[in-house]
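Table S4 entry, Ribosome recycling factor.
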Amino acid sequence: MVNEIFEHTKEHMDKSIEALKRDFASLRTGKVTTSIVDNIKVDYYGTPTPLNQVGSVIATDATTIAITPWEKNLLGDIEKAIQEANIGVNPNNDGDFIKLFFPPMTSEQRQEIVKQAKAMAENARVAIRNIRKDANNKIKKLEKEKEISEDESKKAQDEIQKITDDHVAKVDELFKSKEADILKV
């Protein structure tokens, strides 16, 4: 019973770490990556469709992303979706494909993105602590219902704290790595 709670807790905390990694991927660093446009949806015949499913998205160099739609008539819709996404650049449509030219980031922009990353990391920590709270409540309920002893309850809560500490350390590590990436010129 207690081991199931441990497994459940680890699984959910791992999901919080994965969500943080996905969030971090959407942040811009010194080098442009195609993940910046991952959250952009294009109106494809009335259905919001991810940009990478209506055309090819490639980073041609450190500051440029090229988007080639599979259907030429989507150029306008893609251009509109990029403008609405407000990712900090205007799309350049040449009739065949769209290019996004990202200017080099200023130190103010880098600091602003580090703040966003810090907020994302804090959200992940809060999620992990909420998972810890749920797990501890389940353990206390088992103790209250006399399914486990007080000693077993204390040991289980200590184990959940260890799991929590490990995951919070992973969040801190990911944040430090992302911060270094963002600040590197």
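Residues 2-26+106-183 form a domain with the Topoisomerase I; Chain A, domain 4 fold (CATH 1.10.132.20).
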